[in-house]
Request: fold
Amino acid sequence: HVHGELWQVSVDHLRGMDDYEGIGKGYYRRAEITCLLDHSTCGEVLADAYGVADSRRLWDAAALKSMTCIAEYTLDMQDRVYRPIAHISLKQQLYLQGSRRYNSAVGTHASQTKAS
Reply:
């Protein structure tokens, strides 16, 4: 079970979210899931959720084994550990350095492309 929020977004916003999550680079994928709503007469609804497409493309076996399993990612945990500016900055730095973690689905990165 996952506790969270459901958002209704436009097709354009969904495309933007796909870009942000790296769908085109193969980092994450979007899958349709069935959600049971606690406070609704609707019961179940279909929604899209993002998840890692293939963990082996982002982390090697040793890194995966060293990770702590989190049973539930809570809002309190989000407030304590997530730093959006640092997260985005790290992603940009790793991408520009050609890190496997952020370039495995792409043959080149920005500093290697040729201008036409």
Q: What stands out?
A: Confidence is low (pLDDT under 50) at residues 104-116. The longest helix spans residues 84-96.
